[in-house]
Structure prediction request, 159 residues.
Amino acid sequence: MADVRSGVRLGIDVGTARVGVARCDALATIAVPVETLARGQQPVESIRRLVDEYEAIEVIVGLPLALSGAETASTADAREVAQHLAAVLTVPVRLVDERLTTVSAARDLRAAGRSSRTSRSVVDQAAAVILLEHALDLERSTGNPPGALVEPHEGRADE
Prediction:
């Protein structure tokens, strides 16, 4: 088993209505929920604030592929958010396959006795936790940063 880099990372689960945010501790051993952001309330600025607040070394954005591995409208949306983040953040942004994280999070919340109606506000955070744990596990098993690095594009920072 390889070592994992130390430092806080943020996990971002991009949804159509909400964005779930999780973070890990500085030793990258455990991921915990942080908050759920409304898509209409400038989530990129909120994420920038959280990167600064937690002194994150990296942001992991979930890439929601279809079970077949094909890209979907949600995939394009997550890529767009990741590109925007890469243009405004001073830390690396990485895309990591997140197939079934929201499904797993909803199932886990139901198993804990939460109805789908009462868990809407936390399911995105729970999905972000699962995504971040998966990314940390990938790094532990390979010794390499997980997923694909998002290269910032010039001229996007003011969008």
